[in-house]
Amino acid sequence: MAQLIINSFLKLFSYFAQFNYYFLSHRSLVLSSLLLFVLVFQLYASSDDQLRQSSARSAILKAILAPEEKQPELVEALAQNLHPVLGPILEAWQKGDLFILDLNGKLTPVIRLPDSQLQLVENAQSLPIAQLPENARPLETTGKLRRAMRIILDQLALADPSPEIRENAVLKLGMRQNLQSLPILERLKEQEEHPKVKIAILDAISLINLNSPDTTTKIKALSHFEARAPIFARDSIQKILADSSISPAVRDAANKAMKAIERRIFWTDFFGTVFRGISLGSVLLVVAIGLAITFGLMGIINMAHGEIMIIGGYTVFVVQCLFGTGLALAPFGFSFNLPGLGLDPASNLYQAYFLISLPIAFLISAIVGLILERGIIQFLYQRPLETLLATWGISLILQQLFRLIFGPANIPVTAPAWLTGSYVVEGVIMNYNRIFVIFAAFVILVATWLLLARTPLGLLIRAVIQDRSTAACMGVSTGKVNSLTFAFGSGLAGVAGALLALLGNIGPSTGQTYIVDAFMVVVLGGVGNLAGTVLSALGIGTLDQILQISLRNPVIGKVLVLVGIILFLQWKPSGLFTIRSRSLDEG
Amino acid sequence: MSDRLPKVEIFFLLILSAVLIFVIPILNSAVPTDHPFYISNYLVNLLGQYFCLAIVAVSLDFLWGYTGLLSLGQMLFFSLGGYAFGMHLMLMIGRLGQYKSDLPDFMVFLGYNKLPDFWVPFYSFWFAAAAALWVPGLLAFLFGWLAFRSRIRGVYFSILTQALTYAACLLFFRNELSMGGNNGFTDFKFILGKPINSPDTQRALYVASALSLILTYLLLRTLTLTKFGKVQRAIRDSENRVLFSGYAAANYKLFAFTLAAVISGLAGALYVPQVGIINPSQMEPSRSLEAVVWVAVGGRGTLYGPVIGAVGVNALRSWATISLPAYWPILLGSLFILVVLFAPRGIAGFLEFLAGKVLTASRPILPNTQIFTNSSLPKTSSPNPSGQESQKT
User: Fold this and answer.
1) At residue B310, does pLDDT exceed 90?
2) Domain ends where: A235, A261, A287?
């Protein structure tokens, strides 16, 4: 889990780092490319599309077939025939996916598309042959050629029909802070209609103006950034502040802009932390809720809870394989293949595999729980400490069974496409899968509450939690209630495992990493009530995240949380919320 | 006040001590290697290791079997003792390490220029030996004081000790702690100036382990025969009644918990030079649970049962991890379930059943299922129709 959090963190930081690195390293090329670009842009806008496409194709064909030393020149000249079709071809060339084949004595350049289909450069027709000849070698590129290709690709991006690509390209241009680009941006500003790209153009212009020798322009740019506070402007403003020769007015404006940006970063970090805290908290909640119910009801600690959870994770994996190409297993020396449905990974049915596997995970885990309860735990209700030990034995056995059946390595569960990606609000990155887990935790919580508060079984469960002997005297079959509750709690654990498969690795010993945290949630929340579990799960999750970030050390944060819980129990020994009862707790 | 050790037991102990402390080392050193009675160096070393683990098992039984405190962190105290003594052994390597530096290898590797201050006193053997006792003792005292003061009992206590172990384990895996991180300490060279791997040193360590085991047993056995022992068992059977009778149950528990931690620390300090390595995996919560298995299998509440359990289970482990590595966890888990379900009194219970009344006459009351249903309290005095109780122990 800690790994996961660290990873999502690194992503956040590396995003900006990459930006800077890429653009700073190619600053020198801009000049030449931009002059050409101005010329080309008008041509590009006015001529007929069909014609331009074919002329672009023939131009690049010429460049490809030209001798190596002439290629950079010819590629640069592509600026006169700029057309979107050039993009994939140049990219393929860069990546080594461009080949020259000898078809019926004619040298024919083809590109290999990402789905490994072959396409003619000449007219974009697919090649009938499925595979490249063995001796085919990708066309090589020199440093000079790659530079030329990048210039063309940048120009293509500025004129791309997709607003996101345009926005990125404009910002890229701005980050280079080259005063020569100003006229282009001014022109683009006139033509651009998309509001987001327009803002990006204004940002880019301001970024460039930070380099302007004119103080008023500089101050104007800085006040633009003070109002907008974009994080990407931070480095450039820092550079200005580091310069000792600037006038006080500029320094003042730069300081103000910097403050605005830092405030922005603080809030972005803050909300990011809160989001991750809630996300971690809901994972803990889902893991602990089943434990809280079984513990609250039976007063026993189920050490195999983590493994029952992992059964849910493995169920998702198996369902995923069955929807796809099938699964080969070799437990205990027998090997067999489970045939798959062979669904297309892009089809809707395949994409729904995760939703379908959730109830299956619930069922399978609930059945395993029921078997354990009937087979072992029911004999130990009078000896809670020994239940702890017996369930630990079960957990050992289950872990080893996972290892024998699915192998010791983590299993690859790929999240469905609709759960990959993230939703970004004002720089706070919220992954879809995390949002889904928060949502699922909420649904599980409501379902559990409904079960406990609104169903006959819930009534019985509550009666048994409050006073087992009295409930038994009233004719409640406590044994049956125990079994059903244990099965329900195990089922919830299975759903938790299925959700965990979305977020991280599932392996034979994954359950162990969650079990201590889950216990802490239950102990802190108090036995036998949902409100306490919710509050302690979210509290522990958020505190954990805040400590991890402020201390920059995931382990110390975790240790502090554990110490904090022990100290907290000094103040409230039986957790946040307790059910009041007159019975004497014999320990 | 106190009862005396029964004569039969003293007799048994004397014979056993003679065998463990004199006969086995002599069979190892004085008998030619091809003689059928020869005991190999390997076996002596292995027995020494088992005895160290047996000490932990005895201390855990003192807590669990006699006081009703199931500590899931006994191996934490064991490892702390091992680490404390391991620090001394690391410093004794001197310049013989891979990097030929005064610093331990892992420090050189991590770019330290000088020894961290808290390492310096560990140059002294006696300081390290004392630290192996007081460091676990202090941690147990602090934790126990906090836990018992707020009356954390039963499974809650167990879970918290496990959380403590887990936290410590995470900490020791980090390099920042300057305790060797993942790899821990290894490649020891000298102990008290003697080469650590020579058969003579190992034999001496074996004797020290055997002696410690016997002395620990005697100490704890004597304690359980005193008034302290009676209060201790009363706490196990019904803490509330002890409280109502005016005893400060928390202080008794704190004493038992701290003493058990100190003893485990001693075992760790003896174990590390014999096994030649200490790393955070010894601290993992599952290791402590394994120690509970030794006690449960041997028979808790007997003190000698855990010794049999520790040696037996570890011997089984040594055999199974080589012959049946894939099935060892399943074997261990099944053993645990079977013992808990069908033989709550373990091997000792079986032995006493065999020995009849000869030994049991002077034994402490053995825990069984009865003690957990407290018949004196009004709440549980009426029989429960379903035969199930919500009482926690």
Assistant:
1) yes
2) A261
Residue in chain A nearest B237 by alpha carbon: A587
Does any CB of chain B come closer than 8 Å to the CB of residue A205? no
Across the interface, do B296 and A584 touch by the CB < 8 Å criterion? no
Q: Indicate whether A582 belongs to any domain.
A: no
Nearest to A569 among B152, B340, B386 (CB): B152
In angstroms, the separation between the Cα of residue A561 and the nearest Cα of chain B is: 9
Non-local (6+) Cβ contacts of A237 within 8 A are: A210, A222, A225, A254, A257, A258, A261
Query: What number is the average pLDDT over the span B323-340?
Result: 87
- Least Cα distance to B314 among B12, B22, B56, B16 occurs for B56
What's the angle, vertex CA A150, arms to CA A147 and CA A151, rounded to 5?
A: 90
**How much of chain A exceeds pLDDT 70, in percent?**
88
Residue A520 resides in a domain: yes
Dump pLDDT digits (tens) for A188-224: 777 777 887 878 887 888 877 777 777 777 777 787 8
Centroid of chain to Cα B40:
26
B155: nearest CB among A388, A516, A573: A388
Of the candidates A292, A336, A327, the one whose C-alpha atom is nearest the C-alpha of residue A444 is A292
Question: What is d(CA B344, CA B339) in angstroms, rounded to the nearest whole number?
Answer: 6
How far is A413 from chain B, CA to nearest CA, in Å? Answer: 25
Instruction: Find all residues with CB under 8 Å of A99, minimum gap 6, and list them.
Output: A109, A110, A111, A112, A132, A136, A137, A138, A139
Residue A157 included in any domain? yes
CA dihedral A83, A86, A91, A94 (to 10 degrees): -120
If asked whether residues A358 and A241 sit together in one domain, one would say no
> Which residue of chain B comes nearest to A380, CA vs CA?
B341
pLDDT at position A301: 78
Q: In degrees, to the nearest 5, what angle opens at C-alpha A280 toward C-alphas A490 and A349?
A: 65
Q: Which residues of B touch A389 (CB under 8 A)?
A: 289, 292-293, 296, 336, 340
Domain that holds residue A296: 267-330+337-571
Burial of A277 (0-12, 13-18, 19+ CB in 10 A): buried
Provide, as residue numbers in chain A, all residues whose Cβ is less than 8 Å from the Cβ of B333.
392-397, 400
Could you tell me if A249 and A272 lie in one domain?
Answer: no
Residues A159 and A288 in one domain: no
**A514 in contact with chain B, both atoms CB, cutoff 8 A:** no
**Number of separate domains in chain A:** 2
Please determine, for residue B392, whether its predicted confidence score (pLDDT) is greater than 60: no
Strand positions, DSSP E, B203-289? 277-278
Could you tell me what percent of chain B has a pLDDT over 90? 48
List B residues 332-351 in contact with A (Cβ-Cβ < 8 A): 332-337, 340-341, 344
Please give, one letter per residue, the 3-state secondary structure of B290-344.
Answer: HHHHHHHHHCCCCCHHHHHHHHHHHHHHHHHHHHCCCCHHHHHHHHHHHHHHHCC
Residue A586 domain-assigned (yes or no):
no
Per the listing, tokens 């931009």 go with A34
Within 10 angstroms of residue A142's Cβ, the number of other Cβ atoms is 12
Taking the mean position of all CA atoms in its chain, how far away is CA A204?
Answer: 29
**CA distances, A192 to each of A37, A46, A185 (Å):** 16, 16, 10
Q: Are residues A193 and A278 in the same domain?
A: no
In this prediction, the answer to ipTM > 0.90 reads: no
Q: Is the same domain home to A277 and A225?
A: no
Angle between helices A530-551 and A554-571 (to 10 degrees): 140
Residue B357: the pLDDT is: 57
Decide which of A512 and A130 is more confident: A512
Q: Exposed (0-12), middle (13-18) or buried (19+): which is A391, by Cβ within 10 Å?
A: buried
In terms of domains, do A240 and A291 share one? no
Would the pLDDT of A17 be above 90? no
